[in-house]
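Quick one, tokens below:
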């Protein structure tokens, strides 16, 4: 009889592109400090365009298990509500 050792590891969502993983990590890292994120501000932080952020956010929202990502508003750019 063997004993299996189970270790806790962070599981990365499979199938995400490099850009999507960067956006997801940014949201994970900042979700405790803020609730609302503008696409253009995420883009500025990650060296992307706001359009790239918006185009990839659907896949990020689907893959983000520990945080909820919801499109929140459109005034002066898209805003995303992120909650743990």
């Amino acid at each position: 009889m063997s004993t299996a050792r189970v270790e806790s590891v962070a599981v990365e969502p499979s199938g995400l592109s490099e850009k999507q993983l960067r956006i997801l990590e940014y949201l994970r890292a900042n979700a405790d400090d803020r609730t609302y994120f503008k696409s253009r501000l995420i883009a500025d932080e990650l060296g992307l365009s706001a359009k790239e952020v918006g185009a990839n956010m659907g896949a990020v929202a689907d893959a983000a298990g520990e945080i909820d990502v919801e499109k929140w508003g459109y005034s002066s750019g898209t805003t995303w509500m992120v909650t743990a």
